[in-house]
Specification:
This protein has helices spanning 5-25, 95-120, 124-157, 164-193, 197-222; strands at 45-54, 62-64, 70-75, 82-83, 88-92, 225-227, 232-237, 244-246, 249-252, 257-259, 262-265, 270-278, 293-297, 303-311, 316-317, 332-341, 353-359. The protein is an alpha+beta fold. The protein has four domains: 45-55 and 268-359, Elongation Factor Tu (Ef-tu), domain 3 (Beta Barrel), CATH 2.40.30.170; 63-91 and 225-265, Beta Barrel (OB fold (Dihydrolipoamide Acetyltransferase, E2P)), CATH 2.40.50; 100-118 and 200-221, no CATH class; 122-194, Helix Hairpins (Orthogonal Bundle), CATH 1.10.287. Strand 13 and strand 14 (303-311) form a beta hairpin. Helix 2 (95-120) packs antiparallel against helix 5 and helix 3 packs antiparallel against helix 4.
Length: 360
């Protein structure tokens, strides 16, 4: 029996081999494709990569960057929301700048108060004090003059009744009283004249400087609220509450680069398609008046006619689709912008890549 087992196993192996060979020789029909591969609809056509954008008069989607740095306090819109020009989009913590504005306002108010004080001079009470000093000086002069006159009369009656020293002292006292009266009178005139015009002009300059500093700080405070520059739709929000943003944008942990804080587009009734034609194909492009094009939406059988809008007359490195600014690029492309009506039977959004064919 043991001698028959190898023959049995050999027969089973041969049978299994024959069955496997038969199974693998069967031809299974190929599965139909999920969608037709893109085919050039023109006999002589140019292929180009394209990217869907919002319809803009010029340029691309609107990238919003703050003019100041800080921590995001509130986000007031949502992705896909329709917005109107001037609506607030995002609030950045402005507590420090608000305190600076309050300080500048206090400085302006103090400078204005001092300027009004200078323009209001002379103060009535100060002028009354200066006038009283004039009257006091006049009374002192009258007293010394009377004393001198008495000594002069006595000297004329009896020269020995008044000493030479007493007579000279009385004469000097009159001279001092006259000088004091002149000082008091000039002090009164100076007080009555009010503030010096140069002091007023200097204070006016200080007030203007502080006022402009206040306006500047208040204008900077308004920058802590990002507002939409035009009507449109919020396409993307690349930050969250508590994140730090700066004029360079917001940090992207995935790409380790900076992204715009928000990306805005126009209402998406119609869209633009920006295609990039290789520089070696540029001479084959037809004139704008004869240019016709179609696009294929990747992953579907949908085709759409494109209407020529404009050509961006500048050949640039092909980095728009990868956004890798540090990579070495040997291919240069010419951007051409077309308009496409948004299909009703399929979703189409800005940022999608499409295949574009341009008829020569």
């Amino acid at each position: 029996m043991r001698h028959k087992l190898p023959f049995v196993f050999s027969a089973l192996g041969l049978l299994a081999g024959l069955v496997a060979a038969y199974m693998f020789s069967l031809q299974r029909p190929a599965l139909p494709p999920v969608f037709r591969p893109p085919i050039n609809p023109y006999t002589h056509g140019i292929y180009a990569d394209g990217i869907v954008e919002s319809e803009q008069v010029s340029g691309k989607n609107i990238n919003i960057y703050p003019e100041v740095a800080g921590t995001v306090q509130r986000i007031l819109v949502a992705e896909g929301q329709t917005i109107r020009k001037g609506m607030p989009l995002l609030l950045i913590d402005d507590s420090v700048q608000r305190a600076i504005v309050s300080q500048r306002l206090s400085e302006v108010q103090a400078a204005r108060t001092l300027l009004e004080q200078l323009k209001a001079e002379p103060r009535k009470e100060t002028l009354d004090v200066a006038g009283a000093r004039v009257k006091s000086a006049q009374a002192s002069l009258k007293t010394t003059q009377d004393a001198l006159e008495k000594q002069r009369t006595a000297y004329e009656i009896n020269p020995k009744s008044v000493s030479k020293d007493a007579f000279d002292s009385a004469t000097n006292a009159v001279a001092v009283a006259e000088a004091n009266l002149q000082v008091a009178q000039r002090q009164y005139d100076l007080t009555k004249a009010g503030a010096w015009i140069y002091d007023i002009r200097n204070q006016e300059s200080q007030y203007d400087a502080l006022h402009h500093s206040y306006l500047s700080s208040r204008a900077l405070l308004s920058k802590y609220t990002l507002r939409t520059p035009t009507d449109g739709v919020v396409l993307s929000i690349n930050t969250t509450v508590g994140s730090y943003v700066s004029p360079q944008g917001t940090y992207d942990a995935y790409t380790q680069g900076s992204d715009p804080v928000l990306v805005l587009g126009t209402p998406q009734t119609s869209l633009h398609v920006r295609c990039f034609v290789d520089e070696i194909l540029v001479p084959r492009l037809p004139p704008p008046s004869k240019m016709k094009a179609q696009m294929s939406i990747r992953g579907s059988n949908v085709r759409a006619r494109l209407d020529y809008v404009r050509t961006q007359p500048y050949v640039s490195p092909k980095i728009e689709l990868s956004n890798q600014r540090m990579e070495r690029v040997d291919v240069r492309v010419l951007p051409i912008i077309f308009r496409v009506q948004k299909p009703k039977d399929i979703n189409l959004y800005p940022g999608e890549l499409v295949d574009v064919y341009i008829g020569e």
